[in-house]
Structure prediction request, 315 residues.
Amino acid sequence: MQHYTNLNDIQNLDVIINKAIQLKRNPFQYKELGKNKTLIMLFFNASLRTRLSTEKAAKNLGMEVSILNIANTWNIEFEDGTKMNLNTSEHIKEAARVISQYADIIAVRAFPTLTDKTKDLSEIIINSFKKYATVPIINMESATDHPLQALADGITLEEQKTKKRPKVVLSWAPHPKALPHSVANSFIHLAKKINIDFMITHPPGYELDPNITGDIPILYNQKKALKDADFVYAKNWSSFSNYGRVLHSNSSWMITNKTLGNAKFMHCLPIRRNIVAEDAVLDGMNSLVTEQANNRVYAAQVVLKKLLTQKNEIK
Ligand code: CP
Prediction:
Protein backbone atom coordinates (compact mmCIF):
# COMPACT_ATOMS: atom_id res chain seq x y z
CA MET A 1 0.00 0.00 0.00
CA GLN A 2 1.74 3.16 -1.26
CA HIS A 3 -1.08 5.53 -0.21
CA TYR A 4 -4.48 5.20 1.45
CA THR A 5 -6.86 7.27 -0.66
CA ASN A 6 -9.47 4.61 -1.46
CA LEU A 7 -10.60 1.36 0.11
CA ASN A 8 -9.16 -0.39 -2.98
CA ASP A 9 -5.68 0.47 -1.62
CA ILE A 10 -6.23 -2.32 0.92
CA GLN A 11 -5.65 -5.70 -0.66
CA ASN A 12 -6.99 -7.97 2.06
CA LEU A 13 -9.73 -6.06 3.84
CA ASP A 14 -10.73 -8.91 6.20
CA VAL A 15 -7.15 -9.16 7.48
CA ILE A 16 -6.89 -5.37 8.01
CA ILE A 17 -10.24 -5.24 9.85
CA ASN A 18 -9.11 -8.02 12.19
CA LYS A 19 -5.74 -6.29 12.73
CA ALA A 20 -7.62 -3.10 13.67
CA ILE A 21 -9.69 -5.06 16.19
CA GLN A 22 -6.43 -6.42 17.68
CA LEU A 23 -5.00 -2.88 17.88
CA LYS A 24 -8.14 -1.80 19.73
CA ARG A 25 -7.35 -4.37 22.42
CA ASN A 26 -3.76 -3.19 22.77
CA PRO A 27 -3.41 0.28 21.21
CA PHE A 28 0.12 1.01 22.48
CA GLN A 29 1.64 -2.26 21.27
CA TYR A 30 3.54 -0.52 18.44
CA LYS A 31 4.48 2.68 20.31
CA GLU A 32 8.07 2.45 18.99
CA LEU A 33 7.07 2.17 15.32
CA GLY A 34 6.32 5.87 14.88
CA LYS A 35 9.22 7.20 16.96
CA ASN A 36 10.87 10.18 15.22
CA LYS A 37 8.21 10.06 12.49
CA THR A 38 5.80 12.91 11.75
CA LEU A 39 2.23 12.92 10.46
CA ILE A 40 1.15 16.23 8.92
CA MET A 41 -2.61 16.64 8.69
CA LEU A 42 -3.93 19.26 6.25
CA PHE A 43 -7.52 20.43 6.58
CA PHE A 44 -9.12 22.36 3.74
CA ASN A 45 -12.42 21.77 5.64
CA ALA A 46 -13.56 21.43 9.23
CA SER A 47 -13.52 18.17 11.21
CA LEU A 48 -14.13 16.89 14.71
CA ARG A 49 -13.81 13.09 14.53
CA THR A 50 -11.29 12.72 11.71
CA ARG A 51 -8.95 15.27 13.24
CA LEU A 52 -9.00 13.93 16.79
CA SER A 53 -9.16 10.21 15.98
CA THR A 54 -6.32 10.36 13.42
CA GLU A 55 -4.16 12.40 15.81
CA LYS A 56 -4.85 9.89 18.59
CA ALA A 57 -4.04 6.99 16.27
CA ALA A 58 -0.71 8.56 15.28
CA LYS A 59 0.19 9.25 18.92
CA ASN A 60 -0.72 5.66 19.89
CA LEU A 61 2.01 4.66 17.41
CA GLY A 62 4.48 7.15 18.91
CA MET A 63 4.33 9.64 16.01
CA GLU A 64 4.63 13.42 16.20
CA VAL A 65 1.65 15.24 14.69
CA SER A 66 1.40 18.66 13.04
CA ILE A 67 -2.00 19.99 11.99
CA LEU A 68 -2.56 22.81 9.50
CA ASN A 69 -5.89 24.39 8.65
CA ILE A 70 -4.74 24.98 5.12
CA ALA A 71 -7.72 27.14 4.21
CA ASN A 72 -6.07 29.81 6.39
CA THR A 73 -2.72 29.70 4.53
CA TRP A 74 -1.81 30.68 0.97
CA ASN A 75 -4.42 29.78 -1.61
CA ILE A 76 -2.96 26.83 -3.49
CA GLU A 77 -3.08 26.49 -7.28
CA PHE A 78 -3.85 22.98 -8.52
CA GLU A 79 -4.17 23.53 -12.28
CA ASP A 80 -1.09 22.88 -14.39
CA GLY A 81 0.34 25.65 -16.57
CA THR A 82 -1.79 28.42 -15.05
CA LYS A 83 -0.55 32.01 -15.10
CA MET A 84 -0.96 32.70 -11.39
CA ASN A 85 -2.02 36.33 -11.54
CA LEU A 86 -5.30 35.92 -9.61
CA ASN A 87 -6.00 34.61 -6.08
CA THR A 88 -3.65 31.64 -5.80
CA SER A 89 -0.21 32.32 -4.28
CA GLU A 90 1.52 28.94 -4.22
CA HIS A 91 1.42 25.96 -6.58
CA ILE A 92 0.76 22.43 -5.32
CA LYS A 93 4.05 21.38 -6.96
CA GLU A 94 6.06 23.44 -4.44
CA ALA A 95 3.62 23.03 -1.53
CA ALA A 96 3.49 19.22 -1.70
CA ARG A 97 7.24 18.86 -2.14
CA VAL A 98 7.93 21.24 0.76
CA ILE A 99 5.44 19.58 3.13
CA SER A 100 7.04 16.23 2.23
CA GLN A 101 10.34 17.52 3.68
CA TYR A 102 8.65 17.93 7.07
CA ALA A 103 6.45 14.82 7.07
CA ASP A 104 6.74 11.05 6.84
CA ILE A 105 3.03 10.78 5.99
CA ILE A 106 0.63 13.50 4.83
CA ALA A 107 -3.13 13.29 5.46
CA VAL A 108 -5.51 15.56 3.55
CA ARG A 109 -9.16 16.56 3.94
CA ALA A 110 -10.67 18.39 0.95
CA PHE A 111 -14.42 18.39 0.33
CA PRO A 112 -16.07 18.72 -3.10
CA THR A 113 -17.28 22.00 -4.56
CA LEU A 114 -20.71 20.40 -5.25
CA THR A 115 -20.95 22.92 -8.10
CA ASP A 116 -18.29 21.65 -10.53
CA LYS A 117 -18.97 17.95 -11.06
CA THR A 118 -16.07 17.38 -13.47
CA LYS A 119 -13.59 18.95 -11.07
CA ASP A 120 -14.96 17.00 -8.10
CA LEU A 121 -14.89 13.67 -9.93
CA SER A 122 -11.28 14.34 -11.00
CA GLU A 123 -10.27 14.47 -7.29
CA ILE A 124 -7.76 17.14 -8.26
CA ILE A 125 -6.64 17.95 -4.70
CA ILE A 126 -5.97 14.45 -3.39
CA ASN A 127 -4.53 13.32 -6.75
CA SER A 128 -2.21 16.34 -6.90
CA PHE A 129 -0.86 15.51 -3.44
CA LYS A 130 -0.31 11.92 -4.63
CA LYS A 131 1.45 13.20 -7.73
CA TYR A 132 3.75 15.80 -6.20
CA ALA A 133 4.35 14.71 -2.59
CA THR A 134 7.22 12.31 -1.97
CA VAL A 135 5.65 10.58 1.04
CA PRO A 136 2.45 8.48 1.45
CA ILE A 137 -0.90 10.30 1.32
CA ILE A 138 -3.95 9.45 3.43
CA ASN A 139 -7.41 10.60 2.35
CA MET A 140 -9.26 12.10 5.33
CA GLU A 141 -12.35 12.69 3.09
CA SER A 142 -12.05 13.96 -0.41
CA ALA A 143 -14.54 15.07 -3.05
CA THR A 144 -15.91 11.57 -3.63
CA ASP A 145 -14.49 9.29 -0.95
CA HIS A 146 -14.09 8.83 2.81
CA PRO A 147 -12.08 5.60 3.13
CA LEU A 148 -11.14 6.00 6.82
CA GLN A 149 -14.85 6.21 7.66
CA ALA A 150 -15.57 3.13 5.53
CA LEU A 151 -12.82 1.17 7.27
CA ALA A 152 -14.18 2.19 10.70
CA ASP A 153 -17.66 1.12 9.54
CA GLY A 154 -16.24 -2.23 8.41
CA ILE A 155 -14.72 -2.72 11.88
CA THR A 156 -18.05 -1.81 13.52
CA LEU A 157 -20.04 -4.23 11.34
CA GLU A 158 -17.55 -7.02 12.03
CA GLU A 159 -17.76 -6.41 15.80
CA GLN A 160 -21.54 -6.00 15.98
CA LYS A 161 -22.88 -8.60 13.56
CA THR A 162 -24.70 -11.57 15.09
CA LYS A 163 -25.06 -13.57 11.88
CA LYS A 164 -22.64 -14.51 9.13
CA ARG A 165 -24.37 -12.48 6.40
CA PRO A 166 -26.42 -9.65 7.94
CA LYS A 167 -28.83 -7.51 5.96
CA VAL A 168 -27.45 -3.95 5.73
CA VAL A 169 -29.38 -1.03 4.20
CA LEU A 170 -27.94 2.34 3.23
CA SER A 171 -30.82 4.81 3.54
CA TRP A 172 -30.88 8.39 2.29
CA ALA A 173 -32.20 10.72 5.00
CA PRO A 174 -33.25 14.37 4.83
CA HIS A 175 -30.92 17.33 5.49
CA PRO A 176 -31.39 21.05 4.86
CA LYS A 177 -27.92 21.54 3.33
CA ALA A 178 -26.33 20.09 0.20
CA LEU A 179 -23.97 17.36 1.39
CA PRO A 180 -21.25 15.39 -0.44
CA HIS A 181 -21.58 11.81 -1.73
CA SER A 182 -18.30 10.65 -0.21
CA VAL A 183 -19.55 8.74 2.85
CA ALA A 184 -22.25 6.95 0.85
CA ASN A 185 -19.75 6.13 -1.93
CA SER A 186 -17.20 4.74 0.52
CA PHE A 187 -19.80 2.70 2.37
CA ILE A 188 -20.81 1.16 -0.98
CA HIS A 189 -17.13 0.37 -1.72
CA LEU A 190 -17.05 -1.40 1.67
CA ALA A 191 -20.34 -3.22 1.10
CA LYS A 192 -19.01 -4.69 -2.16
CA LYS A 193 -16.01 -6.17 -0.33
CA ILE A 194 -17.61 -7.76 2.73
CA ASN A 195 -20.11 -10.55 3.20
CA ILE A 196 -23.40 -8.69 3.67
CA ASP A 197 -26.84 -8.67 2.04
CA PHE A 198 -26.79 -5.02 0.90
CA MET A 199 -29.26 -2.62 -0.64
CA ILE A 200 -29.73 1.14 -0.99
CA THR A 201 -32.93 3.11 -0.51
CA HIS A 202 -33.55 6.74 -1.48
CA PRO A 203 -36.22 8.91 -3.07
CA PRO A 204 -36.20 9.18 -6.90
CA GLY A 205 -33.63 11.75 -8.06
CA TYR A 206 -31.05 10.84 -5.42
CA GLU A 207 -29.33 8.10 -7.45
CA LEU A 208 -25.62 8.03 -6.68
CA ASP A 209 -22.88 7.70 -9.30
CA PRO A 210 -23.93 4.62 -11.34
CA ASN A 211 -20.24 3.73 -11.75
CA ILE A 212 -20.19 3.17 -7.99
CA THR A 213 -23.63 1.66 -7.33
CA GLY A 214 -23.32 -0.79 -10.26
CA ASP A 215 -25.86 -3.58 -9.88
CA ILE A 216 -26.61 -3.07 -6.16
CA PRO A 217 -30.40 -3.20 -5.57
CA ILE A 218 -31.95 0.27 -5.15
CA LEU A 219 -35.45 0.64 -3.72
CA TYR A 220 -37.48 3.87 -3.68
CA ASN A 221 -39.65 2.43 -0.89
CA GLN A 222 -37.78 2.88 2.41
CA LYS A 223 -40.23 0.77 4.45
CA LYS A 224 -39.82 -2.17 2.09
CA ALA A 225 -36.03 -1.82 2.02
CA LEU A 226 -35.72 -1.69 5.81
CA LYS A 227 -37.86 -4.78 6.39
CA ASP A 228 -35.86 -7.35 8.42
CA ALA A 229 -32.70 -5.22 8.23
CA ASP A 230 -29.97 -5.99 10.78
CA PHE A 231 -28.19 -2.65 10.22
CA VAL A 232 -29.50 0.64 8.84
CA TYR A 233 -26.85 3.16 7.75
CA ALA A 234 -28.50 6.56 7.39
CA LYS A 235 -26.85 9.32 5.40
CA ASN A 236 -27.92 12.34 3.48
CA TRP A 237 -26.41 13.21 0.12
CA SER A 238 -27.29 15.81 -2.47
CA SER A 239 -28.43 14.89 -5.97
CA PHE A 240 -25.71 13.46 -8.23
CA SER A 241 -27.53 13.90 -11.56
CA ASN A 242 -28.82 17.38 -10.68
CA TYR A 243 -25.38 17.95 -9.22
CA GLY A 244 -25.17 19.27 -5.67
CA ARG A 245 -28.88 20.15 -5.46
CA VAL A 246 -31.21 19.50 -2.51
CA LEU A 247 -34.29 18.27 -4.37
CA HIS A 248 -36.49 18.05 -1.29
CA SER A 249 -36.22 17.35 2.44
CA ASN A 250 -39.05 14.85 2.79
CA SER A 251 -39.26 14.35 6.57
CA SER A 252 -40.97 10.98 6.10
CA TRP A 253 -37.47 9.62 5.29
CA MET A 254 -36.16 10.50 8.79
CA ILE A 255 -35.19 7.34 10.68
CA THR A 256 -37.52 6.70 13.61
CA ASN A 257 -37.66 3.80 16.07
CA LYS A 258 -40.68 2.58 14.10
CA THR A 259 -38.85 2.52 10.76
CA LEU A 260 -35.71 1.10 12.37
CA GLY A 261 -37.45 -1.88 13.97
CA ASN A 262 -34.87 -4.17 15.57
CA ALA A 263 -32.02 -3.02 13.35
CA LYS A 264 -28.83 -1.40 14.65
CA PHE A 265 -28.48 2.25 13.62
CA MET A 266 -25.33 3.59 11.97
CA HIS A 267 -24.29 7.11 10.92
CA CYS A 268 -20.85 8.65 10.38
CA LEU A 269 -21.67 11.84 12.38
CA PRO A 270 -22.16 14.76 12.66
CA ILE A 271 -25.90 14.18 12.61
CA ARG A 272 -28.82 16.60 12.79
CA ARG A 273 -31.20 15.27 15.44
CA ASN A 274 -34.88 15.03 14.52
CA ILE A 275 -33.99 15.70 10.88
CA VAL A 276 -31.87 12.66 9.90
CA ALA A 277 -32.92 10.48 12.86
CA GLU A 278 -35.18 11.11 15.80
CA ASP A 279 -33.85 11.48 19.35
CA ALA A 280 -35.25 8.09 20.34
CA VAL A 281 -33.03 6.38 17.74
CA LEU A 282 -29.85 8.22 18.73
CA ASP A 283 -30.50 7.81 22.44
CA GLY A 284 -31.65 4.21 22.07
CA MET A 285 -29.82 0.94 22.68
CA ASN A 286 -29.55 0.18 18.96
CA SER A 287 -27.49 3.24 18.06
CA LEU A 288 -23.86 2.46 17.09
CA VAL A 289 -22.82 6.01 16.23
CA THR A 290 -20.46 6.50 19.19
CA GLU A 291 -18.85 3.12 18.58
CA GLN A 292 -18.36 3.98 14.91
CA ALA A 293 -16.59 7.18 15.97
CA ASN A 294 -14.46 5.19 18.45
CA ASN A 295 -13.45 2.83 15.65
CA ARG A 296 -12.16 5.77 13.61
CA VAL A 297 -9.06 5.63 15.87
CA TYR A 298 -8.29 2.00 15.02
CA ALA A 299 -9.09 2.46 11.33
CA ALA A 300 -6.55 5.30 11.18
CA GLN A 301 -4.08 3.40 13.35
CA VAL A 302 -4.08 0.26 11.22
CA VAL A 303 -3.54 2.37 8.07
CA LEU A 304 -0.72 4.43 9.65
CA LYS A 305 0.89 1.26 10.97
CA LYS A 306 0.86 -0.32 7.51
CA LEU A 307 2.33 2.76 5.85
CA LEU A 308 5.03 3.11 8.55
CA THR A 309 5.93 -0.58 8.38
CA GLN A 310 6.32 -0.43 4.61
CA LYS A 311 8.45 2.73 4.84
CA ASN A 312 10.78 0.92 7.27
CA GLU A 313 10.94 -2.13 4.98
CA ILE A 314 11.87 0.02 1.94
CA LYS A 315 14.75 1.58 3.92
N1 CP B 1 -17.36 11.36 10.27
C1 CP B 1 -16.47 12.36 10.11
O1 CP B 1 -15.65 12.33 9.20
O2 CP B 1 -16.54 13.33 11.06
P1 CP B 1 -15.77 14.72 10.99
O3 CP B 1 -16.30 15.47 9.78
O4 CP B 1 -16.09 15.42 12.28
O5 CP B 1 -14.31 14.46 10.83
Remarks:
- The chain has a mean pLDDT of 96.
- The chain has two domains: 7-146+296-314, 148-292.
- The pocket of phosphoric acid mono(formamide)ester is lined by residues 47-50, 141, 149, 268-270 (CB under 6 Å).
